Amino acid sequence: MERVAVYPGSFDPITNGHLDLVRRGLNIVDRIIIAVAINPQKKHMFTIEERVEMATKAIGDNPRVTVGSFEGLLVDYLKKQNTHILLRGVRAVLDFEYEFQMALMNRRLDRSVETIFMMTGYKWFYVSSRIIRDVVVAGGNVDEIVPDCVAKKLREKFAEGCFNKNDR
User: Fold this and answer.
1) Could you tell me which of 54, 95, 100, 162 has the fewest CB atoms within 10 Å of its CB?
2) Could you tell me which of 53, 90, 89, 86 has the C-alpha nearest to residue 69?
3) CATH (residue range 4-128)
C-alpha cells in the first residue's frame, strides 16, 4: 500500500527549507502532496495561484511530489486525498508547541490522522517565509535560501512595488 503524506502550509513563499523537508520526507513515505493553504483571513504576499505555481516549479518533475491547494479543515483534505498522514517541519520549541496543538486537534477531528514531525535541517533552521518577506522588503538578498523561481518572483513583485513593509 502506497504511503502518501500531505505537507500543508501557506508557502508564502516556499523556501529551500521546505524543499529539504520534502526531500527527506520521501525517505519515509512514497509520495508527498504539498498542500498550499487558502486562508482568506491571512494577508499573503502571493496569491494562491502564485504560491501553487512557485511550489510546482520548485519541485520540478519529481513524480513523487505533487502540489495542490485546500481551504477549510485539513482533515477533510486528507480524506479527499485518501491518506491520513501529515508531514510537518519543526524548527524550535515555539514551532513544536503550535504543531503539537494542531496535531492533537487534527487527531480529535479524525482519529486516523497521524502527524510525522521532522526537524528542520540545520542549514535551514533560521529560515521562514516570514523572514524571507521581511528581508526582501528591507532590500536584502535571499537568493541562496529560496528556489531560483521564487527569487525571481520576489524580485518581480518588489520591482512592481506590489508590497511594502505592511505586507509582511
Assistant:
1) 162
2) 53
3) 3.40.50.620
Residue with cell 526582501: 136
What distance in Å separates the CA atoms of residue 104 and residue 22, rounded to the nearest whole number?
22
Model pLDDT, residue 5: 98
CA distances from 12 to 27, 31, 84, 88 (A): 25, 22, 25, 16
What are the boundaries of each domain within the chain?
4-128
* Cα 76 → chain centroid: 18
Q: 164 vs 12, 138, 155, 157, 168, CA distance in Å?
A: 15, 9, 13, 10, 8
Q: Known catalytic residues?
A: 18, 42, 91, 129
Query: What is d(CA 146, CA 136) in angstroms, rounded to the nearest whole number?
Result: 12
Q: What is the pLDDT of residues 11-63, one digit of tens each?
A: 999 999 999 999 999 999 999 999 999 988 888 999 999 999 999 999 999 99
Per-position DSSP letters for 39-108, written without gaps between them: -TTS--SS-HHHHHHHHHHHHTT-TTEEEEEEES-HHHHHHHTT--EEEEEE-SHHHHHHHHHHHHHHHH
